[in-house]
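User: Reviewer 2 asked us to show a designed sequence for the structure in our supplementary figure. I'm pasting the structure tokens here. Could you produce the per-position amino acids so we can include them in the response letter?
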């Protein structure tokens, strides 16, 4: 499941555009949050589950501007359909997401297209503004990975429309990681994160975002989510929102 990664200059609640879905290397010892680094998690299965299963999340946090932001996300699998940019028939999930700040809510709806067997993403259609994003995997996800591992994920090309001839608005890259966290009950758990890097370009400030879902060893997903975003430039902004 993805959350906002586009960071237009002059960031406001309405300018945070929601996009969604959802390691290699390991270390020894115990991480600060209490999870052994030797614990392994089914990464490829988890990313597929982030698209193929129904889910809903609500998180909130206080941003660097002192305002409280609430993010709500929901996933609903739909019948397979043709991704308009490539003509590929693919599995499909609809994500509805919203940001609320100062009593104003901005809603965005995306259809995510992906390979039903592997969970490999194909692209998204933004039903709110009529644009599409092409998603190209940068590596094959491992079956299992350790706590503390990190690896390359996707290149996402945001288009001005939804045809093969649409111009490119922005290209971002992402990595994935498995991180340790601790809940309000004091118990440690693991997060599967998608970490996006946004380059500075026309209409966009450089920045980054991370969407982290609670993950179990078998790749099933829990109810906890953490979302963070940082924007640089003339209007710096940062936010971390979580439900634990």
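Assistant: Here is a per-position design you can include in the supplement:
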């Amino acid at each position: 499941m993805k959350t906002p990664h586009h960071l237009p200059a002059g960031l406001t609640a309405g300018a945070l555009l929601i996009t969604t879905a959802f390691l290699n290397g390991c270390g020894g010892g115990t991480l600060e949050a209490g999870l052994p680094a030797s614990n392994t998690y089914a990464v490829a299965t988890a990313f597929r589950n982030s698209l193929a299963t129904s889910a809903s999340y609500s998180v909130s946090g206080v941003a660097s501007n002192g305002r409280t932001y609430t993010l709500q996300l929901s996933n609903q699998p739909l019948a397979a359909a043709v991704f308009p940019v490539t003509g590929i028939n693919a599995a499909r999930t609809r994500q509805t997401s919203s940001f609320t700040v100062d009593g104003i809510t901005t809603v965005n709806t995306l259809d995510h297209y992906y390979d039903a067997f592997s969970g490999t993403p194909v692209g998204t259609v933004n039903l709110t503004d009529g644009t599409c994003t092409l998603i190209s995997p940068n590596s094959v996800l491992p079956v299992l990975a350790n706590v503390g591992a990190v690896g390359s994920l996707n290149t996402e090309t945001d288009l001005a429309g939804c045809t093969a001839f649409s111009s490119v608005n922005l290209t971002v890259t992402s990595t994935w990681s498995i991180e340790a966290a601790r809940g309000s009950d004091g118990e440690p758990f693991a997060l599967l994160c998608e970490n996006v890097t946004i380059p500075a370009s026309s209409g966009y400030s450089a920045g980054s975002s991370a969407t982290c879902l609670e993950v179990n060893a078998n790749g099933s997903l829990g109810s906890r989510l953490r979302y963070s975003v940082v924007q640089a430039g003339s209007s710096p902004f940062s936010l971390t929102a979580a439900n634990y």
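For the response letter, you might also mention the following. The longest helix spans residues 43-52. The helical segments are 43-52.
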